[in-house]
Amino acid sequence: MSALSPLIRPIRLMIVDDSGFMRLAVRKMVEGEKDIEVVGEARDGEAALSLLESVRPDVITMDVEMPNLDGLATTRAIMRRRPLPIIMLSSLTQKGAQTTVQALEAGAVDFISKSSSFVQLDIVGIDKELREKIRYWGRHPLARPAPGQPATARAQAAPTASLPALRACRRPGEVDLVVVGVSTGGPRMLPAFLKACGRLACPMVVAQHMPPQYTASLAMHLRQDTGLEVSEGSEGTVLAPGTVTVLPGGQDGGLTPGLGSTWVLTLRVLASASIHPSVDHLFETALGVAKTPVAVVLTGMGRDGTQGAGAFARRALPVVVQEPGECVVAGMPFSVLEAGHASHVFPVARLGATLQEWCSPGASRPAPDPERGL
What we know:
Rossmann fold; seven-stranded parallel sheet; 20% strand; disordered C terminus
């Protein structure tokens, strides 16, 4: 790459992994990159914490499974002490997936799966992804949180007063389906969102961008954390009121009519989708089965969900986005706002309470608030 401007210092990277081979692999992935500098390496969490103040990294890559202090405990300690963007390197095992989901909720910003090819140092397919994530998070440092609040990225968020205008929208009568799109930051935001929603009188389906193996752990964690009926969906899953179905990672879930008045989940892998599960596909198929659905777009990077939100807008149906300033990454909500598809924008707590009201039997139809979309 071209020489780095003298006005821009390199991103300072610390590598934490108990395997010397893996530390070497990560180092080789960034060798020769003028804008990334490895400033420290640690073989476990205790060593990482002791180095933290002396090397002052901008970004940390963190192994999940380590002796003495594992990746989860180390992430929690760093987020208490000095919040930093942490990218988890996770093995494709049930234990690795479960710990990764917990680390993401604890404050890690992203993760990469350590596949067998990664271990063999066949890194052509993964080094580009890692460098992109290091660069993104190195340029979007975490904001220091208020006491008791999670750290969030200073990423694409705009002050509420400067957000694009919301389209006028009267919500329909009693909402019969809630579909949710979420990506980066989802494991951190979803527990609070679901707790705010409580048990809804209609089904909810969540498209969380994740690879296979991880969404089952996410669903289990959400079920344990919230006490709600949360499960990973599969081909033919029948949606029921009060349930939350998490689409399986690496596949694109859509909805079709089932027996009687039921709706069922169908799974495929869309060649047209750049990331899976596709939020656009979920939103668009929801319109084919539900009469009064609501689309929700939470924290996430990219534009997935914008096209599907446009389909909701053309039907004059509600599209609710999370307050960008509250997001870990505001790309997805802000994309929907910029496209003019959003009808409401709320912080998570109010968003959940609003959905609870809208889904209640016999819910009334309030006039829209032109400033906040209520």
